[in-house]
Amino acid sequence: MANKGGGSVSIIEKAAAKINLSQDLIYHEATGSWHYDMVMASVDLSDRLTIQERSDQEIVVRTSRSFLPNDARNHAYRAASLIREASQVKRGLEIIIEKQIPVSAGLGGGSSDAAAVLRAVNKLWDLDYSREELLDLALKIDADAPYCLLGGIQHVSGQGDQLQPLSALPASWLVLAKPPLSVSTDKILHELTPSDLPDQANTPAVLQAIHKHSYQDLVQATGNMLEDLVFWNYPSLAKLKAKMQKFGAQGVTMTGTGSTVIGFAPSLNRAKHVYNALRGFCKEVYVVPVLQQGTGL
User: Fold this and answer.
1) How far is CA 139 from the centre of its chain?
2) d(C-alpha 94, C-alpha 108), whole Å
3) Which residue, of 129, 213, 247, 265, has the fewest CB within 10 Å?
4) Exactly one of 18, 178, 241, 243 is catalytic; which is it?
5) Rounded CA separation 212/147 (Å)
6) Is 99 annotated as catalytic?
């Protein structure tokens, strides 16, 4: 959405949180790198970004969370820098981020903000970049940014660069519980060895459940290969998962590398019941629907 005021044009872009319905990892010994095999979805919990030009050539990021970096450590800043360098447009940008997505939560907030900047600047500067060109830029940010650029329900593999759209999920609601701790993705992946992971993959069963449009199959299939390792390092997350299951959430699993744990409910009433029961145990709890449609890119 574009706004005009005081002679300047600003683009307002939403950046939706992502969740992992499954997250499998495969170690490629020849390259010494980890590849993903995941099913991802966007949910109706979004940051709001306003992007406009500046009269100088600076990139300025302002956020509603004072503890977040506003330099190249911020994914939104990096996205602005990448697209400006690629386009060779020598203009400044101001990016205002109103945060709603919890930080360091496995919900892809930073990646989604970066993807929103790429979409917005492409419109603001009339660059007419193709989807593939924007995906190439997103991949330079991190493995989640290409997915966040497109959104919707996607089978994501490789190093985040291979995306295949999927059909809609069965009707359901999600409960997201974010405890007061942060998990370092870099630390978890740096310490990860193939022996740390279970043999059983989750993604094939999730794909089959989506193909069958079966809620029951889906909640039985969700899972995350990193869950045992992260729970071993952060035992309170295992307790949170057990609480969610006790209160009636289904298909309970960790998203990303945590610390958010997600659970399904077949109805809004059931989701609200889980939400109310969790509130005494976890401060940050959300009830959200899945965004079945992508960003339209």
Assistant:
1) 14
2) 22
3) 213
4) 18
5) 23
6) no
Question: How far apart are alpha carbons 205 and 266 in whole angstroms?
Answer: 19
From 144, 178, 241, 243, the catalytic residue: 144
- Fold assignment, 11-165: Ribosomal Protein S5; domain 2 (3.30.230)
User: What local confidence, expressed as pLDDT, does residue 25 receive?
Assistant: 96
> Whose CA is closest to 19, among 206, 186, 184, 199?
206
For range 51-55, the mean pLDDT: 96
8: pLDDT confidence band, cut at 50, 70 and 90?
confident
- Rounded distance between C-alpha atoms, residue 96 and residue 66, angstroms: 12
**Which residues are registered as beta bridge partners of 112?**
none
Residue 174 has pLDDT above 70, yes or no: yes
Q: Is 14 an annotated catalytic residue?
A: no
Length of the chain: 297
Segments making up each domain of the chain, as ranges: 11-165, 173-289
Domain at 173-289: CATH architecture? 2-Layer Sandwich (3.30)
Binding residues for ATP: 102-112
2: its two tokens? 């574009």
Contact 45, 260 (CB under 8 A): no
Show binding-site residues: 102-112
Task: Report the relative pairing of strands 8-28 and 223-224 from DSSP bridges.
Answer: parallel
DSSP letters for 34-87:
EEEEEEEEEEEEEEEEEEEEESSS-EEEEES-TTS--STTSHHHHHHHHHHHHH
The first and second tokens of residue 37, run together, are 């095999």
